[in-house]
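To close the chapter, one final illustration. This time we ask the reader to focus less on the individual chains and more on the assembly as a whole: which components sit near each other, and how the overall shape emerges from the parts.
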Amino acid sequence: MIVHAEPVMGTVFSFHLADRDGGSQALRDALSLLHEVDERFSPYLPASEVSRLADGRLAETNVHPDVREVLALVDHAAMDSDGAFDARRWRADGRFDPSGLVKGWAVERAARKISSVVDAFAIDAGGDVVATTGPSRPKPWRIGVRHPDRPDRVAAVLQIDGGAVATSAAYERGAHILDPRDGRVPSDVRSMTVVGPDMTWADTFATAAYVMGRDGLVWVAEHPGYDALAITWDDALMWTQGMDSYLLR
Amino acid sequence: MIPKRAVGALLSTVLGLVLLLSFKTPEASGVASSSRTNRAVVDQPAGAATKSGTTSKSGSTTQSGGTSNAATGAQADSGYADGTFTGQDVSMRYGDVQVQVTVSGGAVTDVTALQLPDGDGHSARISSIVEPMLRSEALQAQSASIDLVSGATYTSGAYQQSLQSALDAAGR
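The assembled structure is written out below.
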């Protein structure tokens, strides 16, 4: 097993790859892709395209094709979620910030790079996990859902053969996610975890559903292949029906 | 302890039902029998009494005793009474949901949706509700076999203190 932890995009990405020829090179390729995405999309780097877009120093018509793709995706997500996810409105300062979608999108791309070389691997992108199984590791990955009070404990365990698991919560960095619709701090659930085939949407749905609260469970389940699990302020777990097949009992 | 929020009153009754059954509370010996759920409790063991629950004739249960912190809660398998428990209707965005929980051998063995919203495409996949967070006590014992953790680690500083960093270190 190749294990590597890489600080990038403001957090740490963990890579667990089956030990296959070309694995180290695939890992390096994935890492350079992530750093390239970070430079282009970081809202903290003044020279990034996203910063220049937010400042009005760059027109939407002049952006890199990757940025154009992400702009289309964030607009789609805003429409799909009735504004519960909105890259143009969720921040207190009102700046355009697509971070809520970019990380998942980047992880998905990194995963595709690795999957062309390594049959079984998992990436944990600051709590958002993509995992696949294959002949070199047939058993499902066991992914813990973090306990909201305790970083060293889990509140549930999901078994994943192939797919994405994303969690949105406010137990770190305070209440950094605001409801774009009214500017308030979401208060219905403590964390929202989404499982599905594609990390771009698992991550985005987790953010939107966290904002929606318990109704977000139902909203996520409207998307074929996606399921959700919430931890409520009553310290209960709630999940959609399809999540049963992942939950370890 | 996090203050209980006034969220979705109807929904919290169902949550309360399961939570209430799940907590073994040291102070619970003084709880009057009237606080039991009226149709749900079968051979409730001593020490697994309800926690400040109240009951109505319709079988609904409200949780007035506050929530329990999962990190300090009782063992997951010690607080359940065997039987089948039915929650009150819960209004969600797309309609009403009602669940039934089956407890056997001290553990939740089944959660069934008795009533689901119908009439549109939303309904088929909606369902399932509630299990107490006390699961974490038992799950902690399994953490040695967890590969990765999902949980909103937004900063590299948070990573350093996370279970994920320990798992990474163990894998190297």
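The first strand of chain A starts at residue 2 and ends at 8. The longest helix of chain A spans residues 23-41. With these observations in hand, you are ready for the problems at the end of the chapter.
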